[in-house]
Structure formats: structure tokens, C-alpha cells
Amino acid sequence: MDRRRRAALLALLLGSMPAAAQELLPIFDTHAHYSSPAWGQYDAAAVLKIFAAAGVTHAIVSSTPDEGTQRLKAADPGRIVAMLRPYREDIGPNEWSRDAASVAYVAERLARGGYVGVGEVHLYDRAAADTEVLRGVARLVAERGLVMHVHSDAEAIAVLFAHTPGLRILWAHAGLGVAAEEVAATMARHPDLLMEVALRAGEIAPGGRLDPLWHELLVRNADRVMIGTDTWVTPRWSIYPEIVAEHRRWLGLLPPEAAAKIAHANAERLFGLPNP
Question: What pLDDT shows up at residue 125?
């Protein structure tokens, strides 16, 4: 069956299902971390069981240090998608974009292959988005046709696009704290901007009802939105199924075709991975 017929069949099936059944949608998690504090409590096998139990078919993982990502990818290369985080040792979110060694580190790691992008990186102000280090890393990402996963406000997004033509950005948390109106305006302004909505389910559907502004934003940008969980601290692994379930609840309130795109199809297309 060709892709068009499969998509039509999926839409027909989902359209005939109640919202509860739509909660069975597979999820492509585009924002997960497996950093060193989690290793002692959750080994790779335990993390993979958590993904499987939550119905997560793929997960983009980045870690501090990168060893965590590599451990998971080695254990399940079909499910784990590697994103390179430039943080290491004493170089963290506040230092990386001003540390001259960051460009060489990213270049050396990307040369090994196997990464779909660089991030999640934090840019806390406009100045951090416009350093020579940041320009160098963004250029490496754009030249390789990869994605930069960026945690920032809308102003930093504009700075990145201005100094690096051809860059594709996955906006972490859709700006986290940026109002829906500004998110919509930023998405309209930058056609190469994608976003994932980790930590924003409570704003998308407060009290179990879709917020009208978010509803419009999600449907209008249904080809550019993805799901994220953000396991930035170890305790989030213990509630991972609940985080995914919270996303599935609001996905069930969207038109079925939009829900399927956001849940998994957009990320599969972007990163060239089939839905298993």
C-alpha cells in the first residue's frame, strides 16, 4: 500500500474512533535526555522499557555528557535518535556558547555521523545567540542539513535565522513561557522553524479543554509541531508514562489528521524514520 493510501486509511480509521481510542496513537518523543544523574537509577534497559510501555516508537535523546545518548542508541538503534548536546564537564548551558572549544567539539562529534542535529541548547538572551561560537555551531548544523534544537525566546530565534541562512530550528517547548499569540507570530515569520511542546500540555488544554488560541495554532501549524517530554531531571523518568498520556489527551481533542501528524508523522518525515 502506498503512503497516500495508508494516510487516507489512517485518517478514516481515526476519524471513526472516539477520543479514548485516539489515545493509542504512537508517539515520537522529540525531547528526551539521559544525562549522568539518571544512569545509576535507570540503566539503558529500564529506559527502553519505559519508552515501550508508553507507546513511544522513537525518541530523540541528547545528554550531558553525550555518553548517555550513545548508551541508549547502542541498546536500541531503531528507537533512539541521537542529538548532540555540546555540554560537557564544566561547560554547561551558561558557558557553551562563549567557550571557544565548543565549535571544535561539535565538529569532531558530528564527523563521526549518526546525529540528526545539535541540542538541546539554551540561549538565555539575545547576546548568547550571536556569539562567534554560536555562529560557528549553527553554520556546522546548516551545512550538514541537520536541525538545531533551541531553548530560547522568540528574539533569539530571529537572531539565529538572521546570521545563519539555511538553518532549521526545532524550538524547544515552543519557547516555554512565550504566549500562544507570540508563538503563532514567530512560526508565521520563520518558515524553517519547527516546534515541540514539552512542558506545555497544561497551557494547551487547561482543565481538559483545548485553549482556543492553542487549538488554532496547532491546527494551522499541524505540519510543523511535534511532541516532547523533557526528562531533564531523573524523577521525570518515574512519571514518563503520565507525561505521554497527558499529551495524548489533548491530541485526542484535535482533528485526527492533525493529531497523527503532531504525535509522530511530522518527526518521522523530518528525520526520515518510518512508523514501525
Answer: 85
CA distance 116 to 62: 11
Q: What are phi and psi of 82, to 5 degrees?
A: -85, 130
Cβ contacts of 258 within 8 Å, gap of 6 or more: 218, 219, 222
Task: Give the residues of the chain that fall short of pLDDT 70.
Answer: 1-23, 276
CB within 8 Å of 41: residues ≥ 6 apart: 234, 237
26-271 maps to which CATH number?
3.20.20.140
Question: What is the per-residue pLDDT for 23?
Answer: 54
The residue ranges of every structural domain in the chain are: 26-271
On whether the CB atoms of residues 38 and 62 are closer than 8 A, the answer is no
Residue pair 71/34 in contact (Cβ under 8 Å)? The answer is yes
Residue 260, C-alpha cell as written in the block: 497523527
Specify the pairing of strand 115-122 against strand 80-84: parallel
pLDDT for res 89: 84
**pLDDT value at residue 273:** 85
Task: Please write down the HEC assignment for all residues of the chain.
Answer: CCHHHHHHHHHHHHHCCCHHHHCCCCEEEEEEECCHHHHCCCCHHHHHHHHHHCCEEEEEEECCCCHHHHHHHHHCCCCEEEEECCCECCECCCCHHHCCHHHHHHHHHHHCCCEEEEEEEECCCCHHHHCHHHHHHHHHHHHCCCEEEEECCHHHHHHHHHHCCCCEEEEHHHHCCCCHHHHHHHHHHCCCEEEECCCCHHHHCHHHCCCHHHHHHHHHCCCCEEECCCCCCCHHHHCHHHHHHHHHHHHCCCCHHHHHHHHHHHHHHHHCCCCC
